[in-house]
Design brief:
Blueprint (H helix, E strand, L loop, with lengths): L1 H17 L9 H10 L3 E5 L4 H13 L6 E3 L4 H11 L6 E5 L5 E4 L2 H11 L5
Parallel strand pairs: 1-2
Antiparallel strand pairs: 1-3, 3-4
Length: 124
């Protein structure tokens, strides 16, 4: 089963690279504001997870590729933070920190994409 998963993961990554979306273009000032706001976001992910790829593609399309990313397989501290803060080991997971310090944890890729689209609409 792990061989099949490995092969599928590689195929997903190849397909992703071949069909990589164009990033939205913003003015330098608008992009700087977006980049600053991204400091309150953190994306927990795995490299070949198809749902994580789906979210990464949308971050590219929205021009927010600078969102802090944490690979839960490669960073044990990221896995611990995900379990401690969000309560479950599931990716993708988006942590959004509010101004008062409270964190919101979003687990479903469609919910994550909807939140990112609302917070960082594509220019144009």
């Amino acid at each position: 089963m792990s061989v099949i998963r490995w092969i599928l993961g590689k195929l997903i990554l190849i397909w992703n690279r071949l069909t990589w979306p164009q990033a939205t273009q913003r003015s330098p000032e608008a992009q700087a504001a977006v980049d600053k706001a991204l400091g309150n976001y953190e994306l927990f992910e795995l490299t070949a997870c198809p749902f994580c790829v789906k979210v990464r593609r949308e971050t590219r399309r929205l021009g927010i590729e600078q969102i802090p990313r944490r690979n839960v397989r490669e960073e044990p501290a990221a896995k611990e933070a995900l379990l401690a803060g969000g309560g479950k080991y599931q990716v993708p997971c988006l942590r959004v920190q509010a101004a008062d310090g409270a964190s919101e944890w979003l687990y479903e890729s469609d919910d994550i994409i909807a939140r990112l689209q609302a917070d960082f609409p594509a220019a144009g």
